[in-house]
Design brief:
single chain, alpha+beta, Zinc protease, five-stranded mixed sheet, peptidase activity, Cytochrome Bc1 Complex, Chain A, domain 1, globular, Pept_M16_Zn_BS, protease, Metalloenz_LuxS/M16
Length: 454
């Protein structure tokens, strides 16, 4: 169930744990700033003749306004609909023609586009991506066709998925003013009423070199990449970006609860507590690191506390998961979610979760337990050294959260200094009812095929 609640930043942060552990500095990483404001980061890794090329725009669903939710994701779709030079649908074909793979993704905090190719084909994809940064050109017919695709995507991934519906209601209940309360894919009514001009306005507002970071990782020479990026991206014109409103989330004053009725086989429970995130310029703030390690104490391995207690011993739930994002642009939640076992109730599961949390609060955790978690985190991430794409993802996601790739090793070093007492302290401070939101999925019988309408 928690696949929809868990997010990716911690995975990427952990990716470079091995370089920190060996004392290696990222001397093979180079950063440049073009005159038009574009940031370029090049990570040289010469172990295989492949390259990952990514463009990150610091514009996600949190930058949307009411009535236009989902427009960031819609524009991601429209970016494949052609420019003055490249016809609709040709972008993907041209990347495939040089043996590459490509895609894009939208989050609350950013939108990113990537290609992974053999190194001699890198210029081809840089040229294509730089072209659509400035020259996107789609007609109304293309838009209205694609908005139907997006609405169908919402139906399949959210409206027909009880876990997604629960997560959507949880976020909309937990947050009052933060745009994090809106789903990335948008509300259906907003999609139904979206116009081509909405997507074009979003493109003109946010897709500018001074709001973008290009990340290139792989078997490359940084100086040569800089020359290519200046040649193709350097012609893009910077412009003033819209003013970003802070939209600070007001303090929560007590338990919130929401119930969702949807066709499902089992009841589900999601519990979310307001929690602090790591903020740029405050890398020594202990609490976010301690919260991150608390997730591992509860759910970081097969025999972690919640899985051992709720799944294996009590058999009250079929699965349980914990999520927390240490770095992000907006306010954060510490999440626990579970799917009930047959014959078990949500109240039983919630009671078991609360008991497990109370044990951490009152008795703390052992130094040996925390040490094992730190070692496990390190060993689990070693194999990812070979992922060119993973390195580019780590750099880009860190930059979009307002940090520098140069901060990553320090974050990892700081994580290793956290004590059991600090983990216990954040559990006591933040996993309390005052900041808790509870979402419950009440499973409804599924309609049989013979009783479906026309």
């Amino acid at each position: 169930m928690l696949s929809n609640l868990l997010r990716i930043s911690f995975v990427f942060i952990l990716f470079t744990q091995i370089s920190w552990a060996t004392g290696a500095e990222p001397a093979d990483t180079h950063e440049y700033q073009l005159s038009n404001g574009l940031k370029l980061i090049v990570r040289e890794d010469h172990r295989a003749p492949t390259v990952a090329h990514m463009v990150w725009y610091r514009a996600g669903s949190m930058d949307e306004v009411n009535g236009k939710t989902g427009v960031a994701h819609v524009l991601e779709h429209m970016m494949f609909k052609g420019t003055h030079k490249v016809k609709s649908g040709e972008f993907s074909r041209l990347v495939a023609a040089v043996g590459g793979r490509e895609n894009a993704f939208t989050s609350r905090d950013y939108t990113a586009y990537f290609q992974q190719v053999e190194k001699s084909k890198l210029e081809n994809v840089i040229k294509l991506e730089a072209d659509r940064m400035s020259n996107l050109n789609f007609d109304d017919a293309e838009f209205f066709k694609e908005i139907q695709v997006v609405m169908e995507e919402r139906r399949l991934r959210t409206e027909d998925n009880p876990s997604s519906l629960l997560n959507e209601s949880l976020m909309a209940t937990a947050y009052m003013s933060s745009p994090y309360r809106h789903p990335v894919i948008g509300w259906m009514n907003d999609l139904q009423n979206m116009k081509p001009v909405d997507a074009r306005d979003w493109y003109r507002s946010w897709y500018a070199p001074n709001n973008a970071t290009v990340v290139v990782a792989g078997d490359v020479d940084a100086k040569q990449i800089l020359a290519l990026v200046e040649k193709y991206y350097g012609v893009a014109t910077a412009h003033e970006l819209p003013v970003r409103k802070p939209q600070i989330e007001p303090p929560q004053k007590g338990v919130k609860q929401v119930q969702v009725k949807a066709p499902a086989d089992n009841a589900q429970l999601a519990m979310a507590w307001k929690a602090p995130r790591l903020e740029p310029g405050k890398l020594d703030d202990v609490e976010p690191y301690a919260l991150e390690l608390l997730t591992a104490v509860l759910d970081g391995y097969d025999n972690a506390r919640l899985n051992r207690s709720l799944v294996k011993q009590q058999k009250v739930v079929n699965d349980v998961g914990v999520g927390y994002d240490m770095i992000s642009r907006g306010p954060e939640l510490f999440l626990i979610g579970a799917t009930m076992a047959k014959g078990k109730t949500v109240d039983q599961a919630q009671g078991s979760i609360r008991k497990a949390l109370e044990e951490v609060k009152q008795k703390g955790i052992l130094e040996s337990e925390l040490k094992r978690i730190k070692v496990r985190i390190l060993s689990d991430q070693i194999y990812k050294r070979d992922s060119i794409f993973g390195q580019a993802m780590e750099i880009g996601s860190t930059e979009m959260a307002g940090f520098s790739w140069k901060d990553i090793n320090y974050m990892l070093e700081k994580m290793q200094t956290i004590t059991p007492e600090q983990v216990q302290a954040v559990a006591k401070k933040y996993l309390v009812d005052e900041g808790l939101t509870i979402a419950i999925l009440d499973p409804q019988a599924r309609k049989s095929a013979g009783k479906e309408g026309k």
